[in-house]
Specification:
Length: about 210
């Protein structure tokens, strides 16, 4: 039996918890619990806390041999920092690809990714390590998404577009075909990045302006 440990205990982590039961065979996997540096994170959810308690802190938990981890953190920079620290301690990460996500056979997926229901990873897409695509987010054909990047619900990276590492595309945002969003770039909600954006850019509006 493999023990799944969810890193984080906030809203994103609780969503990951519920997706586990749709994704992994229960005769092979069980949820051991959550990691959180805030011990009261699950206090408002007593039923959940009883089933899957907080079993340690993110900073201090030492992975056991049978542990496999899922990142339940929605902030790209947090995903990067935590994944790196936990890998240094020997943590081994799973990917969660919900059965209602659509992944084309030619797509290449990195390690530790999270794909929500109704997300789309199209033909010849490349997803880097620890990416997260939320519900109805999509990457069009030949798109490339950098490590730790998060696409919020309905965010879209269109054909041949590329993001750098640790980017965030907010709800209903769009990166236009063949355009590039630099490392740690952000596209605001309901905004369209219609031209290349540099590293650490904040793109806002339609057409988006690089702030």
């Amino acid at each position: 039996m493999t023990d799944i440990v969810i890193v984080g205990a906030g809203g994103c982590a609780r969503e990951v918890y519920e997706m586990v039961f749709d994704t992994f065979p229960q005769e092979e996997y069980r949820v051991k619990g959550f990691l959180s540096d805030q011990p009261g994170d699950l206090d408002p959810f007593p039923e959940l806390k009883e089933k899957a308690p907080i079993v340690g802190t993110i900073q201090g938990y030492e992975p056991a041999a049978g542990d496999r981890f899922l990142l339940g953190l929605g902030n790209p920079e947090d995903r990067r920092a935590v994944a790196r620290k936990m890998k240094e301690r020997g943590a081994k990460f799973l990917s969660l690809v919900h059965p209602k996500a659509q992944v084309f056979p030619t797509a290449k997926l990195g390690q530790g990714i999270i794909l929500y229901p109704f997300s789309l990873v199209s033909s010849y897409v490349e997803l880097g390590d620890f990416c997260m695509l939320n519900a109805y987010a999509g990457v069009g054909h030949d798109g490339k998404v950098g490590d730790y990047t998060v696409l919020a619900p309905y965010a879209t990276v269109l054909g041949f577009a590329q993001t750098g590492e640790c980017c965030f595309l907010s709800t209903h945002s769009m990166l236009a075909p063949k355009k590039k969003l630099g490392k740690e770039g952000i596209v605001a909600a309901n905004s369209s990045a219609l031209r290349d954006a540099p590293e650490a850019a904040f793109v806002c509006g339609v057409p988006g302006k690089n702030m």
